[in-house]
Amino acid sequence: MKTILFILLSGIQLVHSQELQFNVSVSNDTLLLGNYLEVKFEIKNGSGKFLPPDFSGWNLVSGPNTASSYSFMNGQVSQTSSYTYYLEAPSDGEYIIESGNLQTAEKNYKTPPVKIIVFQNPEGIRQRPKTKQEERIVPEESVPSIEPKKKRKVTKL
User: How many structural domains is the chain composed of?
Assistant: First the structure.
């Protein structure tokens, strides 16, 4: 009896999990010509049919690259799906990445449009999109210090 009650309560908790979130993020809001940009659409705690924006005016370098995760910890359920695109601008100027759409059984969701400014790049500087790992801050004391190796003295016999 206790087992059935536990399973029933767990099922109710699964149904009342966290609210759906649909977000867009970009690696940079400014870009040097000849470099590419990472655009990520992320769906948290929900599912549906994802409709990407029309990337007209951009050169599609890669995408859609998809990833998904699911976790159940301490009675909390969370799931995330993401769609990542890498885009390159053909010329300098101002570009708009239109809204992405998510169609669920209950409602349609849209991300806000994102404005990207592309600058001339006469020096040919290469950039790469920032990743979450690069933006992570690590406490200084947890970073091991590396001591240089001592040079060995060679003696002939």
Answer: 1
